[in-house]
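Below is how a single chain appears once it has passed through the pipeline. First comes the sequence as given, then the structure the pipeline wrote out for it. We keep one example in the README because the format questions we get most often are answered faster by looking than by reading.
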Amino acid sequence: MLKSAIALLLFAAAPATAQTLWQNVDTGMTESQVLAAQPTAMQNPEPTTLSGGAKCSLHIQNYFLLNSPYEVCFFFLDKRLIQVTFGHRGDLFKGDYEGLVDALTSKYGEPLSNRQTSLGFSANWVLNNGVNISVFYMDKLLPLLNLVYQTRLASEAEKL
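Resulting structure:
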C-alpha cells in the first residue's frame, strides 16, 4: 500500500511529456503541427537563434495583446517546439509590463517572483503542468518587453 502511494505521488509530480505552452501548442510539436494549430503562423524569413541553439523558425508577425502589437516566435530545437516568446513591437512603456503582469496574475494567480532587476523588471509563474511563464521588461540599454512560455524551470528542477 505504501509503495503504491509513493509511486502515485512520484507519477503525479513528474511533468507530462508534452505540456501546453500557449493556447493549443505543446512542447515537442513539429513545425507542421504548429502551423496546423496556429493558422496565422508562418515561416520566419529572418529566424533569430537563442544561445542554446533554438531557432524562431515560425512566427506570427502581428499579434495584438492588451492593445499592443507583438511578434510571436515559436522556437524549435532538434525540430521540436521548446518555447513561445512574445516580443513587444512599437513604443514601450512600463505600463505595458504592468498590464501583462496584471493579466497573467488574473489568469494564473500571484507570480512566484516579481522584482526589479539591474536592467528593468521581471515576473515569473510556474504552472501545475510544468510550464513557466516569464515577463521581462528592460528599460536600460534598449527598450525590451518579452513574454516567454517554456519548460526550462521544470526541467532544471527535475535535476535537483
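The CA atoms of residues 96 and 145 lie 8 Å apart.

See the next section for the split statistics.
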